[in-house]
Every structure is written in C-alpha cells, then in structure tokens.
Amino acid sequence: MAKSHYITRAGWNALDKELKFLWKEERPQVTQAVSDAAALGDRSENAEYIYGKRRLREIDRRVRFLTKRLEVLQIVDYSPKQEGKVFFGAWVELEDEQGQLKQYRLVGCDEFDPAKNWISIDSPVARALIGKTVDEEIAVETPSGRIICYINRIWYEK
Q1: In what order do the strands lie in the sheet with 145-156?
Q2: Where are the beta strands (DSSP E) in the chain?
Q3: DSSP-derived 3-state class of residue 129
Q4: Is 76 in contact with 89 (CB distance < 8 Å)?
Q5: For residue 5, which of 88, 64, 61 has the smallest C-alpha distance?
Q6: Which of 35, 120, 24, 12 is closest to 63 using CA atoms?
Q7: At the topology level of CATH, where does 80-156 sit?
Q8: pLDDT tens digits in sequence order for the chain, 158 residues long
Q9: How would DSSP label each residue in 88-121?
Q10: Regarding the domain delimited by 6-75, which CATH topology (the fold level of the hierarchy) does it fall under?
Q11: Which end of the chain is more exposed for a tag (fewer CB within 10 A), N or C?
C-alpha cells in the first residue's frame, strides 16, 4: 500500500525545521569536525574522522529524504465543513465492547506517534473511521481478530 501524502501544518513545519537544522547547523559543524580530524594525519584509526564521515552520510541521506518528501506532501488544514465527521486531523474517542475508552488522532504517516495516540491515516483503524459520525460503529480486522468500537466523540484542533 502506498503512503498517503497528507500532513498537518504542524507536522510539515516540524519536518521543515528538522531539514533546516540539519542543513544549516549540524552539517556545517560535522563537516568542520571531519576537516579538523583529517588534518591530524592517519585517518584509518582516527575515530573522530570515521564517526564524522559516517554522521555526514546519515545527515545527507536524511536531507535527501526530507527534501523529496516535503515536495510531495500536501498540508491539510482544519475546515469547519469537517465538524461532526471523522476526517484527516480529527481526534476521535472510541469505546470498545468492554467499555474501555481510547482516544486517537488521525495524522499523516510522517507524523504518527503511538506515545501521543496519533495514528496514521493509512492504518486499518483510521480507514474504518473516515467519514463516520458520533454513535456509529466501526469494525476493524486485527491480527488477534475482529474488534468493534463505537465513536463517542469527534473534535478538531483549530
């Protein structure tokens, strides 16, 4: 399944900030450290040089990824038309069959974070939620079996 290209404005800003930090701050510092380490002579056993070159490759790889990804991402801002239904960016409170409550926010695949209860718009739960309203039931197939949840509440950060 292809990744969606949706992202919240805050998510896009975070990726853009990371890109600028890597390119304008960290990379020049690491480049200087590598240059200084190279001036010390034998590079084959110079840990600072070896680590610095490795870190430069990591930075360059991440910069390339972020540059390409930011070009294709589409920022989805809140719209009053979304109220009452689950769409991208929504917070949703679900109640399972045992009465346990869980809250999730539907975000782009570049910003999902289980610690914050942010789930990817591409996840099975999010796909089952899209377009639903309060008091509707969703069914999601999981590796441990089918789960049924009820939507108690939907809200958006404005």
Answers
A1: 118-120, 101-107, 90-96, 145-156, 137-142
A2: 6-7, 74-75, 90-96, 101-107, 118-120, 137-142, 145-156
A3: helix
A4: yes
A5: 88
A6: 24
A7: Chitinase A; domain 3 (3.10.50)
A8: 557 899 999 999 999 999 999 999 999 999 999 999 888 877 778 888 999 999 999 999 999 999 999 999 999 998 888 899 999 999 999 999 999 999 999 999 999 999 999 999 999 999 999 999 999 999 998 888 899 999 999 999 87
A9: TTEEEEEEETT--EEEEEEE-TTT-BGGGTEEET
A10: Helix Hairpins (1.10.287)
A11: N
The residues, any chain, with a CB within 8 Å of residue 18's CB and separated by 6 or more, are 62, 66
142 forms beta bridges with: 145
- CATH 3.10.50.30 maps onto the chain at 80-156
User: What's this model's pTM, rounded to 2 decimal places?
Assistant: 0.83
